[in-house]
Amino acid sequence: MGNQAAWREWAKTEAKPQDIPASPAAAYPEEWRGWGDWLGVVTRWSRGTLLAFLEDLRPRLPHLEERELYAILQQGGAMPTLRARFGGRSPLKVIGDLKENTGRGIESAILSSEVDDGDEAPHLEGDVADTDEAIPEAGDVALAGEAANFEGDGDVLSSPSAEEVGGLPALASRMGLRVVDELTSLPGGLDDETAAYLVGNRVAALWEAWIKGEADGVREALAGEGGHYFNLIRERFEAELTEVESLPVPDGYRFSVNGKPAPPNAMQKRTAWEVLTRRRVGNWSGAGAGKTLSAVLASRVAGCEKTLVVANNSTVSGWGEEIKRIFPDSVVHHGPEESVPGAFNYWVINYEKFQQSYRGGLVRRLAGLGMDLVVLDEVQMVKQRTKERSLRREALEGLVYALGEQNPDLRVLGMSATPVINTLYEGRKLLEVVLGRSFGDLDSAPTVANALAVHRALMVNGFRYRPPYEIEMKPPEVLETERNDLLDDLVAAKGVLGTEQAVLAAKLEAAAKRIRPGTLIYTHYTQGMVGPIRRFVEGLGYRVGEYTGADKSGLEAFKERRVDVLIGSQPVSTGVDGLQYVCDRIVVISPPWTGAEYEQLLGRVRRQGSAFSEVSVVWPQVVLDHNGDRWSWDAGRKAIIEFKRTLSDCAVDGNIPQAMRIAPATLLHKSREALEAWIERISEEGPTVSERAKLEVPLPPELRERVRIRVGDFTTINNRWVSSNSETVHGRLEADPSEWYLYHTLYREAREAWPELPAEHIASYLRGRPDWKVGDFGCGEGLLKKALPHHEIIGLDHVAIDDSVIACDMAHAPLEDESLGAAVFSLSLMGRNWPAYLAEAHRTLRPFGLLFVAEPARRWEEGRLEQAVQEHGFEPLPSYQRGDFRYVRAVKGLPPSSFAP
Asked: Rounded to two decimals, what is the model's pTM?
């Protein structure tokens, strides 16, 4: 017997002795080494064997997913040899050639090989059966270069997509359901684990098709005869379907959409059935699939009078509202209060409480209540990335364990569309919390085999449903704006955040006409981003709210249409419900870093009950273009979103991974390399395309508007400087002097209406002493110097407008002691630490030197300036007010030691 199929046929006959098991893999689980070992068939992957294997595999390829191909090739030992024959390429390249080219590239490589037909093919270093290529780490530069496309020359890597046959998933098609039996005739056959995996995938595909409304197609695919595995698939699916379909909807169910009763869909009923029969299970369905309702329904179907829901802080109130909306007779608690006897009680607690100092008491009180069901919503909130136990996870794991000890029938439902984001260790620990047992056999090393093992574990212990959304999601509208003038800003930008800030104003301008009521503007980064976005949108005449880590006040106002536009960051993409009723447009100003996070963002508006027939997504992008030679940071960021080959994609969908994740620092590095190459190429053609607008007063109109969007108007800047420490302001302006130039541009315009300039008035006192060295503290444009052209004026300011000015923090003036004859502060006592400026004036003035201060009168209480001057060692002279300004004069007296005998 040469294969598994032959063995199965023989095992059915009377020729098989009674002491020989028909299913040897099950009988000898510890000793099992595969069908080749059992049958005594040693597969030598010679040229002829490989070519025959490819020929047998070809007709089955359309009915196998890449994750299944990997399992088949790996369990039979063919993968390492195929990789070696195919130039040592990665498993993804081997599977890609099989799926996209029916293996013709591999076939050509085998035929051109110098290995003789009778020789065993060479293999990669290491044990052939165990060789597996490690997935490149996040910092792998070559990977980031492939995944991100900064030069706009088309996609380099294609993303996997779901295959369909006649409207059904390929796995659920007539041939897809029967291909498992056909695979048993391949060399080495199928081991039981791989066969079970293929069967499970097809049952899941049938469920997905059924839930999507393809009942007729499913019945047709299941009709007729088939082999052992086909019958197993059909029996398992039909048994599950019968039980789910016959599941009664509990009394008291009142859920409705737009005033019309909305019965539970098949996914929600399946969730309830899984919780009822399996007790501990994961629902990994996509965003907007209706997981919240599925959990509440499951609690009632299973008769759970006490249900604990642990959720994101931003969704706690939403959970309470939904529970009451689905079953109005529910009792909802937001703390560990006692239950109401005879009622269905729900305790909705946010994850953050389990990391606070009082977490021990909280766990004891909740455990004392004795739960029937624990729902872990967005269960990725509890997972950990390293082996160092987090406080949150430790507390929750202890709580679930304690509840399980009290109640052997405890049910646990974990829910997440993204159970793995960064490392495989996350998936393993997540499963342990939900299932309540160890998954130590799941290796967290980043290899293809390990990633697919985590995927299989997630699917065996849960299910995933990708909903067909009722509303149309238009392809993203990319709004390109050519901005070669930003080249120098991009070169000078510091880090990823600096790069995002450098292109922000241009992207807002590009998207301006797409912003309207009902728009969500998303920015992954908030520092230096949210403020400019808000000011820009308010400048368009819209009311603006925020939902970020620092300010969540805008969500309810947006849902109630009291604001027109919502600015959201990462928190808005996780667990927030209700946006689908008011939002039909997303403007992506600064995108998230993974496809999973992006899908979660879209899921906020593309979900059940949407009030709209379609939703649009707008991606403004800044492009540098010189005669068709292009570079774009934003295009590279978008390519990363569309790159579906990370660990997260493997964990939930089984896509063969090529990267752990995309590291922002790596992407930035590759972006800078591409930008430098672009600059070098265009420089060969003559002058650089970017003649950076010179910073001057006044700023050129175009530059002025871009800076205003970024930093605000005159009042905003003035308030910022007045309320900040001078060291902070100095660091800010040193990094980006454009804010200083905008301030003085606007200041110049403001003083055009003034009847008198304080600097010129002070100059009238100093004209008779051209021998004095004068310190102009906060000199700005140098108005005092212009009024006293024959004096030695030393200007000091955060930014030097010319070479005669010293750029510095005035609290630490780089001047020698007692070197000035006069010190002038003309409208420049700005900063929370302004008294330190007076101390510096006193230090740098010689004895009997003069101090002049001019300030807006309305800013100061009567006598406050005079008092401060005196407190710093000056002898005040008569002060007075002219127009809107208060003038204070003083003289520096001799130190006390000067009067000693």
From this structure: 0.64
